[in-house]
Amino acid sequence: MAFTQLDNKRDLITRLADGHYHSGEELGEELGISRAAVWKQLQKLSDLGVELDSCKRRGYRIPGGLSLLDSTIIKSNLSPAVAAAVALTVLELVKSTNEVAMSLARDGDAGGSVVLAEMQSAGKGRRGRTWVSPYGRNIYFSTVHHFSGGAAVTQGLSLAVGVIVVQVLQDMGVGDLRLKWPNDILWHGKKLGGILLEISGDPAGSFDVIVGLGINVNMSLREGNEIGQQWTTLSDITGSAVDRSLLSARLANGLLPMLAAYEKYGFERYRKAWQQLDSCLDQAVVLTAGDQHITGVARGVTESGALRIETPEGCSEFSGGEISLRARQ
Ligand code: BTN
Questions:
Q1: Which among 19, 73, 241, 270 would be 20 to 30 A from 293, CA to CA?
Q2: Which residue CA neighbors atom 9 of ligand 1 most closely?
Q3: What are the tens digits of pLDDT across the range 140-197?
Q4: Residue 138 beta carbon below 6 angstroms from any ligand 1 atom
Q5: Interatomic CA distance for residues 73 and 104, integer angstroms
Q6: DSSP bridge partners of 199
Q7: What percent of the chain is predicted at pLDDT more than 90?
Q8: Both 220 and 110 in a single domain?
Q9: Is residue 293 within a helix (H) or strand (E), and if so which, with residue range?
Q10: Cα 215 to ligand 1 centre (Å)
Q11: Considering the entire predicted model, what is its pTM?
Q12: What is the Å distance from ligand 1's center to 279 Cα?
């Protein structure tokens, strides 16, 4: 397991993650540093956006605690096949886990890499957007898979990722989830997660796909207040904090075997499940591609994962990363 930059603060935050008060004296003794040094580190955590509560007589705490990533828990919950194939990297603070995964891919032999982080300082969303990525709250997960048969073999892949993510969450007891083309994960119309696929290599031949997944897990209202759309978080749906390590392991258990078999089976294997989760099926929608707006009725997806929209002129198919879709009011 690799950690960047924050090793001392990691010790501190691990103690505060229980949500209880810890005095400056106790923390200093446990970490073998002065109270002034404890205070400095607390300041750095606060600068990272970690919510800290201080009480004169009791000390410091993180209200509600934090579910931190623990590589031992992650590894012990991987299926034997995934545990044998995965190269797990758990980081503290990165710009973007997709960027880390991309650089592993460029260095070669990144197949099976899973990169997780506590926080992203420049998390990337689709269509150039920023992905809000506060410390210790959500899933920031990227994995790399090598394909050799040209980009056509990855058609529909991001939709298949959405299906697997929903299945993993359903297995954990989360109901009422839907997918919005191409790959928003929604709960009651609110965004719970998103998927960003990027490519490294030659799309006409041999290349790596970086599958980036963000899921809001234990995020507070304050931490999510910059999200420019209606959103939700797993802890609000389930009513209690969710273990991020366990969830990370389950996602790896679902996603890695799917990726390994995708070149063989393609989207066809996931199409029916995707259509059953389609939040826009038979709904009036507006599709925006650049400055073009197409209004019509969503009619599911093709065998390659393209969106079908029925307009008065007939049925058209749409695919591509720069397209957005919304229900027509
Ligand atoms: C979307 O806009 O819906 C896609 C969001 C994808 C976010 C994830 S978080 C992990 C990975 N690293 C990134 O920088 N982005 C993806």
A1: 270
A2: 214
A3: 999 999 999 888 889 999 999 999 999 999 999 999 999 999 989 999 999 999 999 9
A4: no
A5: 24
A6: 209
A7: 85
A8: yes
A9: strand 292-301
A10: 9
A11: 0.94
A12: 20
Tokens of 277: 């989760």
Lookup: tokens for 58: 């009791």
Q: Are residues 39 and 155 both part of a single domain?
A: no
pLDDT at 8: 57
Same domain, 105 and 137: yes
Chain-centroid distance, C-alpha 25: 37
**Distance from the CA of 159 to the center of ligand 1, in angstroms?**
14
Place of tokens 């090598």: 146
- Taking CA 190 as the corner, what is the angle to CA 185 and CA 194, rounded to the nearest 5 degrees? 30
- Residues identified as active-site: 126, 191, 326
Residue 204 tokens, joined: 């006409």
Q: Contact 282/299 with Cβ under 8 angstroms?
A: yes
Nearest CA to ligand 1 atom 16: 212
Q: Which atom of ligand 1 is nearest to the CA of 127?
A: 2
Is residue 66 assigned to a domain? no
The band of 4, judged by pLDDT with boundaries at 50, 70 and 90, is very low
> What domain range includes position 321?
280-327
Give per-residue pLDDT as tens, 199-240: 999 988 899 999 999 999 999 999 999 999 999 999 999 999
